[in-house]
Fold UPF0225 protein BJ987_002292.
Amino acid sequence: MAESQMCPCRRGEPFGECCGPLLAGERPAPTAEALMRSRYTAFAVGDTGYLKRSWHSGNRPEDLDLDPGQRWLFLEIVRTERGGPFDDTGLVEFIAHYRADGGRGQLHEVSRFVREDGAWVYLDGVIQP
């Protein structure tokens, strides 16, 4: 993705100033929400390496296959709890909208994040109806 294109996470910044440096490993996510946004962006651009690196080591899948027919459209952050620069745990509820198989869908999840070796990582999530 071009550095100057708007970031898929829709925070309103160019990719090169928003999630790009996180995906490239140039800087860590400062908050759980920032990690959530960067993981959404990784799904949108197909960066399975970043997804695995940002997953808690105890829950990280060995293989991660993304559906090439699924196109992520936009992300809504519903709420956050904790997950700030001085927290060790955080929660982010989000709705990720996508297009697949000729139709639209959404993934509504409440995700838990923790710090591992000082960095925010995705622990797990519960899909919401």
Q: What stands out?
A: The two ends are 32 Å apart (CA to CA). The beta strands are 71-82, 89-100, 103-116, 119-127. The chain has three helices and four strands. The chain has a mean pLDDT of 96.
